[in-house]
Design a protein that fits this description.
By secondary structure, the chain is mainly α. It contains 14 helices and no strands.
Length: 408
């Protein structure tokens, strides 16, 4: 870090806040607002699935765009651009022009993916030479954003506010947070590859061609495995325990669990094979997804929210560290690749729910079938990692890389 660079704690706080806006609002504010919009009668579950899919398609496009951005571009300019875009696009969702909502959710997804990649990249570049071990706290941002948006939506629901008002409130909160962290993202980043740090045992480039595709497939299965719960959790709760005062608790619980999971992920032994951590995370999430199918009622939904939320950001944390082991250079490019494949997994989720709902008479039965398929996808993803461990015995990175790898 240069003498003009912010302190590591400021970097982490700003990075976490930026991810909270990009992910907690840009991607997932729709989830707690969805029951409000359904209550307002401005959309139904089928149209809701279309809006969710548009956002996930936008996330895919944003991930691909992040891969194509020239390395000489200033990362902080891009981060600021995504913050402004998220604030504006969120506010525009309050307008009573339903035909424009698909485009708005698509663009919000683009901004979310670009913000995720560039915020993570900038923070890693700032922290990589400091010796600080707090970088993993950046990944508390998405969970914190989810929890905050869920709590805010709960309060607005109790006050009887409309979905359009909720969009304006989230936009205003995002604008306030963006203003607070704006100066942190100054013109102090270099145009170099922010992820090219350390020396890996794979630096020679002798990497089996099939390793990265298998890894990407497994990561994509995680995108499909969690997204049905992450998109429809409040709706599932409303159908399972109608009229319960706990209906608005489960989504914030998911977010808080994600925060806890990201902090716990930083404390695991980095000398072990990261793919083993991913296997455990996938299986834990698979149990959480399945739990809401076999254990109806508030306790089942609460435990499901926790078990799905705990590995949510931890999976990304482990996966991005593993990419830096597999590919010793151009990490940002491969991070974008994984983000794109993850987005494809997410895109499949809402249409799958829509297709199932069209073929079953009971909404609860439809959700149960969709969640069961999602849980199986996570188990399959864990199995892919097990196969990879056998096919490609892990060459652990050097001590220097392991230390840097604590910064997602």
């Amino acid at each position: 870090m240069s003498k003009h660079s912010p302190s590591p704690y400021v970097v982490v706080l700003a990075g976490s806040a930026s991810l909270a806006i990009a992910m907690g609002v840009g991607r997932f504010a729709f989830t707690p607002i969805l029951p409000m919009m359904l209550h307002d009668g401005v959309l139904d579950l089928s149209r809701a699935g279309g809006l969710a899919t548009a956002n996930y398609v936008g996330y895919l496009v944003g991930a691909l765009a992040a891969m194509a951005v020239p390395r000489r571009w200033d990362h902080t300019f891009v981060i600021r651009l995504t913050l402004v875009a998220t604030v504006l696009l969120t506010a525009l969702m309050s307008a009573p022009y339903a035909d424009a909502w698909v485009a708005l959710r698509f663009l919000a997804g683009v901004a979310s993916a670009v913000g995720f990649v560039f915020t993570s990249g900038w923070c890693l570049a700032q922290l990589s030479g400091t010796g600080s071990s707090i970088g993993s706290a950046i990944f508390t941002g998405p969970g914190a954003g989810i929890a905050a948006s869920g709590l805010a939506a709960s309060g607005m629901t109790l006050l009887g506010l409309s979905g359009s008002t909720a969009w304006l409130v989230f936009s205003a909160l995002s604008a306030i947070i963006s203003a607070i962290i704006w100066k942190t993202f100054g013109n102090n980043s270099s145009p170099s590859d922010a992820y090219s740090v350390g020396t890996s045992t794979r630096a020679s480039g002798r990497v089996p061609k099939s390793e990265m595709p298998l890894f990407a497939i497994a990561y994509g299965l995680a995108g499909f495995g969690y997204i049905i719960t992450a998109t429809y959790l409040p709706v599932i709760a409303k159908n399972t325990i109608p009229g319960s005062p706990l209906l608005t608790v489960f989504w914030p619980l998911f977010g808080l669990a994600a925060v806890a999971g990201s902090l716990l992920a930083a404390r695991v032994r980095h000398t072990a094979d990261v793919r083993l951590h991913l296997v455990v995370a996938y299986l834990l999430q698979a149990v959480g997804v399945a739990l809401s199918v076999v254990w109806h009622g508030a306790p089942g939904l609460a435990f499901s929210s926790i078990l799905v939320g705990l590995p949510f950001t931890a999976i990304s944390f482990f996966a991005m560290n593993e990419v830096r082991r597999i590919r010793s250079t151009h990490h940002a490019r491969y991070m974008g690749l994984l983000t794109a494949v993850f987005a494809i997994g997410q895109i499949v989720g809402p249409p799958a729910v829509g297709a199932i709902m069209a073929r079953v008479a009971d909404v609860d039965a439809g959700f149960n079938l969709a969640l069961a398929i999602a849980s199986i996808a996570l188990v399959v993803g864990a199995g892919v990692y097990v196969v990879m461990i056998q096919m490609f015995p892990g060459e652990r990175s050097s001590t220097k890389v392991v230390k840097v790898a604590r910064h997602p």
